[in-house]
Amino acid sequence: MNLTAIIAAAVMGAAACFTAPSVPVVAAVVPPEISARSCVVIDALSGDVLFEKNSAERLPMASTTKIMSSLIALEGGDLDTPFTVDSNAIKVEGSSMGLQEGDTVTMRALVTGMLLPSGNDAAGAAAVRIAGSVEGFVYLMNERAQAMGLTDTHFVTPSGLDDYTDEHYSTAMDMAMLTRQALKNPDFAEICSKKTAQLEFGDPPYTRWLTNTNKLLSTLEGCVGVKTGFTDKAGRCLVSACERQGSTLICVTLNDQDDWSDHTRLYDYAFSLMREVPLTPELSGYKIDTVTGERVYCRGESASITLPPSAVGRLQRYTLIRPFLYTYSTGEQVGSTVFVLDGEKVACLPIVVIS
Question: Which terminus has fewer CB within 10 Å in the chain: N or C?
Fold first, then answer.
């Protein structure tokens, strides 16, 4: 919800400047040594960078490409209507979810096949189903990348298989920003976090299990996704997300021979940089008049949020409260304290009647 919508939705409100608390000074934490050619760690909420190494270098990104393919497939809707896969679309080399000619499948199953076993056949089948051809789907991928501001990303295939012109590329930073958007899609977030999934597809459909190639889901505390990738050209590529301390971080490594360990070290480092910020109401108490002239006392609730130090100063507070009351009851919500970061609502705390 953007800032304009927040204000427009209020019956009556007043904006107040929010003076963020100072960020405490802590002992310096030594950044880890990382073997990746390129990497970045960002905070999913603010988008702020906590660690980077050559994060703007254009490199092939292998099957992490399927993050974009899956997102477009999920946004198209109609996820659970069965259809027959295109025979030519599934004839691709490399990793597979096991599709065969004549199989009946759903788009949700294809996305699961892309994100868990990294099925190139699933990417091809989804592309043809959505756009009528692989080329048409790739056009949609590049169009969406441009709309997202991913200026250093270009797709040639929906699967991430290397092309021969070096035109299939992205950067660690662009892949992190793409993942930040993808995780806002609840279907994407749910599917990419699964260690295994039970599906029905085939001719006729029958039950089978798919296993996620992302080992971090089992070995890394708080890991919630996202996607592995490998080709001889790209090397080992890994995009992951991790939840700890009430926040979510995203890590991307490209061309990394020690990616499992590197992601673990990077998260331990990056989470140590995060800071808890108190979210407090503008005033310790509020008074609202009633139509009968009685004065009602109200209180705003408090909470906290975890942010990178660089984002704390951008946090804004808006108080939305009714100017008067006709009737009221103790505990009734009469307003909200809304906290906004870069134009997006990050918290909404109630203001309630206490007497």
Answer: C
Q: What is the pLDDT of residues 196-247, one digit of tens each?
A: 999 999 999 999 999 999 999 999 999 999 999 999 999 999 999 999 989 9
Domain holding 133, by residue range, is: 38-274
Burial profile 209-245: b = 16 or more Cβ within 10 angstroms, e = fewer: ebebbbebbeebeebbbbbbbbbeebbbbbbbbbbbe
> Can you tell me which residue has the tokens 């051809």?
133
Predicted confidence band of residue 164 (pLDDT cuts 50, 70, 90): low
Q: Which residues are catalytic?
A: 63, 66, 118
Q: Using an 8 Å Cβ cutoff, are 299 and 283 in contact? A: no
Output the domain CATH number for residue 252.
3.40.710.10
Tokens standing for residue 309: 């130090």
User: From CA 214, how far away is CA 224, in angstroms rounded?
Assistant: 10
How many structural domains are present in the chain?
2
Q: For residue 338, give the CATH number of its domain.
A: 2.60.410
CB 351 within 8 A of CB 314: no
Residues forming beta bridges with residue 122, ordered by sequence position? none
